[in-house]
Amino acid sequence: MNPLLRSGVIAAAIALVLDQASKLWLLNVFELGPRGTVAVTPFFDLVLAWNTGISYGWFQDSGPVGQAILLAIKATAVIVLAVWMAKSGTRLAVIGLGLIIGGAIGNAIDRLAYGAVVDFALFHVQIGGKTYNWYVFNLADVAIVAGVAALLYDSFVTPGAAKRP
Questions:
Q1: Residue 141 annotated as catalytic
Q2: Residue of 52, 86, 125, 161 with fewest CB within 10 Å of its CB?
């Protein structure tokens, strides 16, 4: 394996391990479920949410067949991203793709193990006595967003990057 590709595989492995370790710890050691909402800061809480859908909770009522379809789509996406990663020519793109792959696999493991993705991070702000919440997310989601940001940045700063798959 060449050093460039190795950096993407390492990024995927780190994202996957951190994601799964955080979820296992929060579920089995910290026991977030029975604790309910845990205020960490005035703007950040830990809260257990089981997401049976995809991003932002879309397709939550799809049932077992829908879950199988979502897993098949995710597996196909991971394969396509891995091929793209193997063909990429910049370290930033390879690491970005690795982060996306690691995050996607982390959430897929949740679907297989629990039938839903474990989400736990909630940012919020209170303005004028009303609380505004962001979506509940996890470290896999953070890795995916960081990976997409890395790909976007790479596409703007690398000459000809937009022309590569």
A1: yes
A2: 125
